[in-house]
From TrEMBL:
<feature type="domain" description="GS catalytic">
    <location>
        <begin position="117"/>
        <end position="450"/>
    </location>
</feature>
<dbReference type="Pfam" id="PF00120">
    <property type="entry name" value="Gln-synt_C"/>
</dbReference>
<comment type="similarity">
    <text>Belongs to the glutamine synthetase family.</text>
</comment>
<protein>
    <submittedName>
        <fullName>Glutamine synthetase family protein</fullName>
    </submittedName>
</protein>
<dbReference type="InterPro" id="IPR036651">
    <property type="entry name" value="Gln_synt_N_sf"/>
</dbReference>
<keyword id="KW-0547">Nucleotide-binding</keyword>
<comment type="function">
    <text>Catalyzes the ATP-dependent biosynthesis of glutamine from glutamate and ammonia.</text>
</comment>
<keyword id="KW-0067">ATP-binding</keyword>
<dbReference type="InterPro" id="IPR014746">
    <property type="entry name" value="Gln_synth/guanido_kin_cat_dom"/>
</dbReference>
<feature type="domain" description="GS beta-grasp">
    <location>
        <begin position="14"/>
        <end position="109"/>
    </location>
</feature>
<keyword id="KW-0436">Ligase</keyword>
<dbReference type="InterPro" id="IPR008146">
    <property type="entry name" value="Gln_synth_cat_dom"/>
</dbReference>
<dbReference type="InterPro" id="IPR008147">
    <property type="entry name" value="Gln_synt_N"/>
</dbReference>
<keyword id="KW-0535">Nitrogen fixation</keyword>
């Protein structure tokens, strides 16, 4: 990390000439501007501006109607981007460049925009702080690495996609050695950018990779995840390769997830741990996990935000299909990790690689808080193959998840009606856009035979 004084010194001696001033959009992407570093340190560090449509677009940057916050009728005005100088960090994979993250403020009131992802997560973190707890989280980034570049794949119409390897490479050192020209700079550059990178490994499919980052405070974890995802795309492109965080890019390949590990701490100690409990679970942890389970349908749209997200939930692929918890069992939606130790935590295995970490973690924290406030009782863990059974199903489509989000009294209380309505509309936009498109599948299946 950088201090502002250090940045000024680096700008003065010519080491740094560019500052990326960024915020996180609804899709979890970095948006912003590239500042000449001298202009930034001379005054732009206080604030800059952006169009408010940037928190009301879809993946393709279209401007759909139906948002209360902004529209063509309202003229698409400005938001204030307020740099948080505590987030200054080098960007080692880009020459002479540093980055700073911003809060997004209303242009007139200078209050945080309630539906900005950073504000949504911050609100839940602060709720926990008021209760005396710190939220600690970690995320796993899974993605596919391809032989060709983004531009080559785009020009081919995204057809004939060829992963960088031809084998399932789960934990395979020989195959991942062949990919070190991409993965090594990813690990090293991100470490030098201040992210506590633990490791990378091959995942359970051809060309599939996983990057693991050490647990941290929830806000830091969301920032690490977002920056890492952005960097992986840029560094892969520098090496002539494309990556995708699409959860299910082929029906005959397993999908990519982004598991979220979480625990609460109090006064620097793990509050989920109780040495006298059979599994090491405190009463607080049991309440929290019961909340996660009870309200999982409500926040599924934050963990699986697109049509494609739901193609991943298939039996026998290590992706969950049921809202059930189990002890160290990778077939369950919620897995108890580190049982009997101070490292005890819950891993939510539902989120896909396309999640916005700020929104997904905010939904989980809100559900956990509700579990604590309601003193919910945690049922006994399920044992064996959790794929067997028809109860507690994860919402099967974005339509189902959007309906659950819309009707969630818990999230309306925790996040605010305006936030819930904003992201319900985001889901509706994805559904409407998909519904109007004729797919290759429909043509091939029915062109002659229908």
């Amino acid at each position: 990390m950088l201090t502002f004084d250090t940045l000024k010194d680096q700008v003065a001696d010519g080491t740094v000439d560019t500052v990326l001033v960024c915020f996180v959009d609804m899709q979890g992407r970095l948006m912003g501007k590239r500042f000449h570093a001298k202009h930034f340190v001379n005054g732009a560090w206080e604030e800059t501006h952006c169009c408010n449509y940037l928190l009301a677009t879809d993946l393709a940057m279209a401007t759909p109607d139906g948002y209360a916050s902004t529209s063509w009728e309202r003229g698409y005005g400005d938001y204030v981007m307020k740099p948080d100088l505590s987030t200054l960090r080098p960007v080692p994979w880009l020459e002479g460049t540093v980055m700073v993250m911003c809060d997004v403020l209303d242009h007139h009131t200078h209050e945080e925009v309630s539906h900005s992802p950073r504000a949504i997560l911050k609100k839940q973190v602060n709720r926990l702080k008021a209760m005396g707890y710190d939220a600690m989280c970690a995320t796993e980034l899974e993605f596919f690495l391809f032989a060709k570049s983004f531009d080559q794949i785009r020009r081919s119409g995204f057809r004939d996609l060829e992963p960088i390897s031809g084998y399932n490479e789960d934990y395979n050192i020989l195959q991942t050695t062949r990919e070190e020209h991409v993965m090594r700079p990813i690990r090293n550059h991100l470490w030098d950018a201040g992210l506590p990178i633990e490791n990378s490994k091959g995942e359970a499919e051809t060309g599939q990779e996983e990057l693991n980052i050490k647990y941290a405070a929830a806000m830091d974890t969301a920032e690490f995840h977002t920056i890492a995802k952005h960097a992986i795309k840029e560094i892969a492109e520098q090496q002539g390769h494309a990556v995708t965080f699409l959860p299910k890019w082929s029906h005959d390949k397993v999908g990519s997830s982004s598991h979220v590990h979480q625990s609460l701490w109090q006064d620097g100690k793990p509050a989920f741990y109780n040495e006298s409990d059979e599994l090491g679970m405190s009463a607080l942890m049991k309440n929290y996990m019961a909340g996660l389970l009870k309200y999982a349908p409500d926040y599924t749209a934050f963990m699986a935000p697109y049509i494609n997200s739901y193609k991943r939930f298939m039996k026998g692929t290590f992706a969950p299909t049921r809202i059930i918890w189990s002890v160290d069992n990778r077939t369950a939606g919620y897995r108890l990790c580190g049982d009997g130790t101070k490292a005890i935590r819950v891993e939510c295995r539902i989120p896909g690689s396309d999640m916005n970490p700020y929104l997904a973690m905010a939904g989980m924290l809100a559900a956990g808080i509700a579990g604590i406030e309601e003193s919910l009782e945690l049922q006994a863990p399920t044992r064996g193959d959790v794929y067997q059974g028809d109860t507690g199903k994860i919402p099967g489509t974005l339509r189902d998840a959007a309906a659950a989000l819309k009707g969630s009294e818990m999230l309306r209380k925790a996040l605010g009606d305006d936030v819930v309505d904003h992201y319900v509309r985001a889901a509706e936009v994805e559904i409407e856009d998909f519904d109007r498109v004729v797919t290759d599948y429909e043509i091939a299946r029915g062109f002659e035979r229908a």
